[in-house]
Amino acid sequence: MQSRQLNRACGRQEWFIQASLILVGLLAFWPTVGFDFVNWDDPSYVWNNHLIKSWSPSNLYGVATETVTRNYAPLTIGTLLIDHTFWSMNPSGYHATNVLLHLVNGILVFVLTRQLTSNPFVSWLTAALFLAHPVQIETVAWISSRKGLVSAMFMLAALIVRLKPASSGSVETLNGASTNSVVVTSDGDAKQDLWYAVWLGAALLSKALAVVIPPIVLLYDVIIVRRKFSDALVRQVIPGLMSLLLLLKTIAAQHTVLGGLRGHMDMNLLQITAIDVTILWRYIGMMIWPADLCVLYDPPTSGIAGTVALAAAGWTVLAFAIWRLRRSSPMLLWSAATFLLLLLPVLNFFPITTLMNDRYLYLPCILIFAIAANGINRIFSILTKNEDALTRSLAVMTRWAFGIALVLAALSTTTRHLPVWQNSFTLWNHAMTQVPQLPAVRMQLALTHYDSGQKRQAVRILQKAILECQPDNRDAKRMSDATKTWLQELNERTAERPTLRR
C-alpha cells in the first residue's frame, strides 16, 4: 500500500514538473505564432518549395529523394508539407509547429537528464533553461530551422532508449551519486538497439547532424557503462553505416556556397582550428551571458594570435582538470566529449558558409546547463546534510528558488530579444546594428526593401554596401547585378508614367 502511494506521489510530482516545463516553453516562445516569414532561407524551404505544395506522387518522391538548400532532410520537408496542407502560406501555423516541437524536446531533455542523474532538481533546471534560454531563439523562431527541431526530437529519443546501464553494479550519475544499474540481457540489448536504430534513422533523415550520435553512444558505453571498447564498437556498426550513408548523401549535395559568409572557406585546417578555440569560448559566454545575439556573426579571423593563445591555454587547463577527474566523475568527461561532438559538424572542418550561429547550440547547451544545474545542486546539498530539519528545508527551498530565478532571468532576456525575429525588417535592421560590415546583411536588408516595393532604397543600400563592406568578387557581382536590374526596373517604370501637360 505504501509503495503504491509513493508511486502515485512520484507520478503527480512528475506531471507537475512536466506541466511547469510546458508553461515555461509557452511563455518563452508562444509569441512567435504572431510572427511572419523571413527572407533568410524561408523562400527556399517554404515560399518557392514546390515539394510542400501538394501530396502528388511526384512530390512525395521528391520529398524522399531531393535535397533542399544543400540538405537532404526528407522528414523535415515532410513536416513542412503537413504545415502547408493545414495552413497554406499562413506563417502562424508553421511557427506553432516549431513551438510544439520545442516543447516536446524540452520534455525529452527532462526525461533524458532524469534518467542520467536521478535528480529531479538537476533534470528540471536543465530542461527549463533549455526551453527558455535566449540562445534557442534562432532555432525556434526561424521557420527554416525546423530541421534542427525535428532532428533533435529523434536524437533525444535515440539517446533515451540507448543511454541506460547495461551491466550489473554501480554506475555514477551526473550528480555524483551512485545508482544500481539494471542487468540487461542480450534480448534487452537487441530490443534497445532496434529502437535506437529506428530513432537514429529518423534523426538522420531530419538533419545530417545526427551522424554524431553513434560516437556519443560509443563513448557512453566505454566511459560510463565500462564496456570493453571492442564490444561497444560492435554495437555501433549498423548505426555507423547508417550515418555514413547519410553523410555521403549530404556531402554530394554541398556543391554551392551561395549566401552566408565565405571569407574563411579558403583557410587551412590549422587556421580553422585556431579560430574554433576562440569561438568555443564565445559559445560558453553566450550561454552564461546571452547579450548581443544576432542572426549572423563576424568573429575575427586575423590578428588574433594572442586571443588564440589565451583561449587554447584555457581549454588545455580545463581538459587537464576533466581528465584528472575522469575516475571520480566519468560523467563529466563524457559530457565534455559529447559537447564537442555535437559541435564538431559546425566547426568548419568540413567547410560551411558560417563560422558561428546561435542554432548550433540547440543541443550542446544541454550539457552546459546540466553541468551548471549539477553544480548548483551540489552547493546546496552541503546545507541539506545539516542535522537540523529546518536548515535542510530552507536549503531545499532556497535551491529551488535559485533555480526558478535563473529560469525567470532567461525568460526575461528571451522576451526582450524575441521580437528581432518578427519579420525581415526587424531581423536585418537589428543585424545592421550588430554587424553592418557584413555584405550578407546589407544584401538581405536590400532584398527586404525591394520585396516591400521600396526599390530605390534597396538600390541605395547596395550601392553603399559596395563602397563600405569590401565584398569579395562573388558578392560584389551579386550586388552589382542586382543594382543594375533594379535600376532598369525603376527606369522602365518611370518611362511608363504618363506625361503631365499644362
What would a concise description of this structure say?
This protein has about 500 residues and is mainly α. Helices cover about 70% and strands about 0% of the residues.
Question: How would you explain this protein's 3D organization?
Answer:
- This protein is mainly alpha-helical and 502 residues long.
- It contains 21 helices and 2 strands.
- It has a two-stranded antiparallel sheet with strand order 1-2.
- The longest helix has 29 residues, at 389-417.
- 37% of the residues are buried.
The profile of the biggest β sheet is: 2 strands, antiparallel
User: How do the strands of the widest beta sheet line up side by side?
Assistant: 1-2
Gross morphology is globular
Tell me the helix content: 55-70%
Structural class, please?
A: mainly alpha
Number of helices: 21
Cα separation of the termini = 100 Å
Radius of gyration: 25 Å
- Provide the low-confidence segments as ranges: 166-173, 175-185
